[in-house]
Amino acid sequence: MNTPSHLATLDTPAALIDLARMRHNIDRMQARMNALSTRFRPHVKTTKCTPVVRAQLAAGAQGITVSTLKEAEQFFADGITDILYAVGMAQHRLPQALALRRKGCDLKIITDSPASAAAIAEFGRVHGEVFEVWIEIDTDGHRSGIRPDEAALLDAGSALHAGGMRLGGVLTHAGSSYELDTPEALAAMAEQERAGCVHAAERLRAAGLPCPVVSVGSTPTALHAQQLDGVTEVRAGVYVFFDLVMKNIGVCTASDIALSVLTTVIGHQPDKGWAIVDAGWMAMSRDRGTQKQKRDYGYGQVCGVDGEPIDGYVLSGANQEHGILSREGTPDTGIAARFPIGTQLRILPNHACATGAQFPQYHALAQDGTLATWSRLHGW
Question: Looking at the whole model, is its pTM more than 0.90?
Answer without folding.
Answer: yes
